[in-house]
Design brief:
Number of strands: 39
CATH architecture of the largest domain: 2-Layer Sandwich
Strand order of the largest sheet: 14-13-10-11-12-15-22-20
Shape: globular
CATH superfamily of the largest domain: ATP-grasp fold, B domain
Radius of gyration: 27 Å
Distance between the termini: 47 Å
Structural class: alpha+beta
Helix content: 10-25%
Number of helices: 16
Length: about 650
């Protein structure tokens, strides 16, 4: 079953990841893409690319592209059609090689209820669950509503009381239908203080099956993973052997081939583990396993698809060091992890520390609501967990990024938090520990960053001057006047006043009362600046009236203010605006309705997740501007509320239901 060309039925960072290994193996790669990805890096990385008229879920078009380009095999990556048994069967029936487990295994494990029954039959411990909401009392509260198909946190809701059940089930069904084309859900016991630990398995077509240790993926928001690591800080040799054996029992019972992941929930109090599901595909977090075992999982997938023997047994697998992965996502962590969109005006990882970047974007990439918000995976490997966390945090902090709001600052803060370092990483970590969700700057640090931005602009202006470029800024045939420029960081306004001095330095403040700045070097992308004796080189990118300045803690996003304020439209009191672009899927109020603070008024879908827009205060609905099915942009007006009293804060959302 040899093949020389693979078609990748996916996009973004996973497409680039597969391309890299395929090329290392001497295999050519065909990519498929939609118009929204026409300028994406993976399209260029491939040997050739085929435009899809419809989308990444059009299996027939993908198979047609494989035949047209001479590809003999299809790799599905993860997401999209990767766990679609029908597509896998169609690929095989079309005379192509499917790089993954058999359609029967995908079908059996893709249905979580069927998978649980198989786990019980294989002697693997499971949590109590029921397949109909009317049997919720058998599970008890709190419980978890879960989609029977799919994964990635979609179609999952935690329910604390019986009164919340109906809405949670309805919402989970909608999200599951949208994401997986299957609205079936089931109810499962919810363990609040738990860990998400999974076992990587790998099998060939000759009956050989091994496990590659565990990954802990407990740092999550909306039941979606953000930070993963291997090994787990709580799994010892005995527990690893027990979980590995359970995963192998299940794998052998279903004749598993290729890579797969058996996911478990670990009760943090008792260290008992329970089967959750099997992912019949490559996992997003697979790089951490590769780092500690030295085994390239994509290479093994390709070898297995070729019919090759693994060539090693369980005792041959060793685990060395520690690896941690962080998912860099386009989302506003400080606003409940709402998805964000925009154009990456800046995206430049630092040369050091050396980490593994699995990125689907580059400077200039457009981030839309059409796809998952993950921009890149960043993986650090080190001899110890503490060092790996520190290296990963520093790599994130040194990433120069701007134009799109991301969770970078939250990830770095989490990795440096004492609770994370101590291994206290249960699934409620974010709500319980509450690591900082945004970059925190002192007034001094903020002023230093603003000074770097302003003097970089000054240098650019001089470099671009058509005449008198040799003269200092603001030169007059008399005493040099002070120059001023104001920038805004969030709600903080910084005015930088500087005056050129005859020795080439700059006096800061009206009379130099704020110290002295010296520019040692200036270029189109950075500035080497010394402010009051503290010298550093800052990467800088300007895009219109925005300027992005790299600081030791991260990138500061300044808005350059015009010298004279231009009047603009003011927000109307009581107006609720869309917090992100998306589709309105439910409008729960009409004009004249009384609403209570915190009640859901509008439900939107963006990046395949539901987001509930809530009332900021008690009041009466006076206008409704949207309807079900309507596409709205970021900031578009949704409705108006006449508050009973003046609202204490801006309209907000609760993130996600």
């Amino acid at each position: 079953m040899s093949f020389s060309t693979i078609l990748i039925a996916n996009r973004g960072e996973i497409a680039r990841r597969i391309i890299r290994t395929a090329h290392d193996m001497g295999i050519q790669v065909v990519a498929v893409f939609v118009d929204a990805d026409a300028d994406a890096p993976f399209v260029v990385d491939a040997d050739q690319s085929v435009r899809l008229e419809t989308g990444y879920l059009d299996g027939a078009a993908i198979i047609k592209a494989a035949h047209a380009t001479g590809a003999q095999a299809i790799h599905p990556g993860y997401g999209f059609l990767s766990e679609n048994a029908g597509f896998a069967a169609d690929v095989i029936n079309a005379g192509l090689i499917w790089i993954g487990p058999s359609p029967d295994v995908i079908s059996g494990m893709g249905d979580k209820l069927a998978a649980k029954r198989m786990a019980v039959a294989a002697g693997v411990p499971t949590l109590i669950s029921v397949d109909t909401p009317d049997r919720a009392s058998e599970v008890g509260y709190p419980l978890l509503v879960k989609a029977a198909a799919g994964g990635g946190g979609k179609g999952m809701r935690v329910v604390g009381t019986a009164a919340e059940l109906d809405e949670a089930v309805a919402s989970a069904r909608r999200e599951a239908l949208s994401g997986f084309g299957d609205d079936r859900v089931f109810l499962e016991r919810y363990v609040a203080a738990s860990r998400h630990v999974e076992i990587q398995i790998l099998g060939d077509s000759h009956g050989n099956l091994v496990h590659l240790g565990e990954r802990e993926c407990s740092i999550q928001r909306r039941h979606q993973k953000l930070i993963e690591e291997s090994p787990s800080p709580v799994v010892d040799d005995a527990m690893r052997a027990a979980m590995g054996q359970a995963a192998l029992q299940l794998g052998h019972s279903i004749g598993y081939q290729s890579t797969g992941t058996v996911e478990f929930l670990v009760d943090d109090a008792t260290r008992e583990f329970y089967f959750l599901e099997v992912n019949t595909r490559l996992q997003v977090e697979h790089p951490v396993t590769e780092e500690v075992t030295g085994i390239d999982l994509v290479r093994e997938q390709i070898r297995v698809a070729r019919g090759e023997v693994l060539g090693y047994e369980q005792d041959d697998i060793t685990f060395t060091g520690h690896a941690i992965e962080a998912r860099l996502c386009a989302e506003d962590a400080d606003a409940g992890f709402l998805p964000a969109t925009g154009t990456l005006a800046a995206f430049a990882p630092a040369d050091t520390p050396v980490v593994r970047w699995e990125s689907g974007v580059e400077q200039g990439s457009v981030v839309s609501v059409s796809f998952d918000p993950m921009l890149a995976k960043v993986v650090a490997y080190a001899p110890t967990r503490t060092e790996a966390a520190a290296v990963l945090a520093l790599a994130l902090e040194r990433l120069h990024i701007g134009g799109v709001t991301t969770n970078r600052d939250f990830l770095a803060a989490t990795l440096r938090h004492p609770s994370f370092i101590e291994g206290d990483t249960t699934t409620d970590f974010i709500e319980r520990v509450r690591p900082s969700r945004k970059l925190t700057l002192t007034d001094t640090d903020l002023h230093r960053a603003a000074t770097a931005a302003v003097l970089w602009i000054q240098g650019q202006n001089r470099a671009e001057a058509g005449v008198l470029a040799h003269l200092p800024t603001g030169w007059r045939n008399a005493r040099l006047p002070a120059q001023r420029l104001s920038v805004r960081y969030g709600d903080r306004l910084v005015e930088v006043t500087y005056q050129s001095r005859r020795d080439g330095s700059f006096g800061l403040g009206n009379h130099g009362d704020q110290g002295i700045a010296r520019v040692h070097r200036h270029s189109a992308i950075d500035i080497d600046i010394e402010v009051n004796g503290r010298r550093s080189t800052a990467r800088i990118t300007r895009a219109g009236d925005r300027i992005y300045v790299q600081t030791p803690g991260g990138t500061v996003d300044f808005t350059i203010l015009a010298r004279f304020e231009i009047p603009g439209a003011e927000l109307t009191t009581g107006g609720l605006n869309a917090p992100m672009p998306g589709t309105v899927i439910d409008v729960r109020v009409a004009v004249g309705d009384r609403v209570a603070a915190g009640s859901t008024l509008v439900v939107m879908e963006a990046m395949k997740m539901e987001h509930h827009i809530s009332a900021p205060a008690d009041g009466t609905v006076t206008e409704v501007f949207v309807r079900i099915g309507q596409q709205v942009g970021n900031g578009d007006a949704l409705l108006m509320i006449e508050p009973d009293t003046d609202p204490a804060s801006d309209p907000a959302t609760d993130g996600a239901s």
